[in-house]
Amino acid sequence: ELKVEQNPLFLSMQEGKNYTIYCNYSTTSDRLYWYRQDPGKSLESLFVLLSNGAVKQEGRLMASLDTKARLSTLHITAAVHDLSATYFCAVDSNSGNTPLVFGKGTRLSVIA
Amino acid sequence: GAGVSQSPSNKVTEKGKDVELRCDPISGHTALYWYRQRLGQGLEFLIYFQGNSAPDKSGLPSDRFSAERTGESVSTLTIQRTQQEDSAVYLCASSPTGSLGYTFGSGTRLTVV
After folding, report:
1. Total domains present in chain B
2. Residue B2 C-alpha, separation from nearest chain A C-alpha, in angstroms
3. I want to staple A63 with a disulfide (CB 3.0 to 4.6 A). Which of A47, A57, B13, B30 is the partner?
4. Å from B31 to nearest chain A CA?
5. Domain spanning A4-111, CATH architecture
6. pLDDT by residue (tens digit) across B2-38?
7. In what order do the strands lie in the sheet with A4-7?
């Protein structure tokens, strides 16, 4: 059974600081997804990582994937208040359309 | 439509009543998924439809839950004899065949009182 673990689950950080969210998963997979969810809203796709060593960046967020370690990281650079949200990673274990397994999410709060 | 549409957006129901939630996926998306999100929690997979194949119902928590999909179009999730623990946001997502990642709807917030 595929399991996905995120840490930390809660993160309070000051504006301007850097931090990393970790996503570990239990079985072989080369497809990992990061989503953002604002309070009361649905999920918005941030990154799709498809291979070992993949790195993608969008603004102050950078995601990477190490399939050998079964680990993805979401790095936040110089945080701003607008990044406050819950971030989920998700993994699927096969090619094609199989249900994604989600982590529990990391609730990020960026404070002045 | 332009996105995944879910209705109603909010539903309050009395314990023991049946409810029906609707999801209208993006046109042409063959795969459709239902997830449940309890307050402050992650997403719990419920059921998955792929084209005309038999649905993957492995995530349905009890036989009170069922879902139907008409071809590659609208899906309805039915919860019979609702219980308070059914209170959650029910999210629907769709994707094209072989796609990478989903497009989510805005969800239906179900409250059982």
Report:
1. 1
2. 15
3. A47
4. 7
5. Sandwich (2.60)
6. 799 999 999 999 999 999 999 999 998 999 999 999 9
7. A4-7, A19-25, A71-76, A61-66, A55-58
